[in-house]
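WARN no homologs supplied; continuing
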Amino acid sequence: MTLDELTGIHRACILFECVSGSRAYGTANADSDTDIRGIYAQRPTAFMALTPPSVLIADERHNTVYYSLRRTLELLAAANPNILELLYMPDDCVTVDTPEMQRLREARAMFITRQCADTHVGYAFSQIKKARGQNKWI
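OK structure emitted
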């Protein structure tokens, strides 16, 4: 399925959609793009093909990205911070929220684990290390 198909004739497959990035957090400026993130349910016929169904549908620049529900759950179980963020998006940024996703969002605390904390701390330290390296170069 292509992005045009998902957002067009298969729009009913979208379980969750939100505006993310700088527009979600109030840091956008005149040059900022609009980032869209979402979760979709794969059509049953997608599993009948000889090749596995796509786990990600995105535009070329990844400004618009939709994850399959299966991949979303895998990434949540692995404490992926980008996916966890979707469960905590402010309501005013959410454009599609189905009952299935509302239940998942209500249970979002179960994904806050020690592994999740370690992942976030590791990311923060890597960003600090990266910033220090850039300062030495300058």
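The chain has six helices and five strands.
OK
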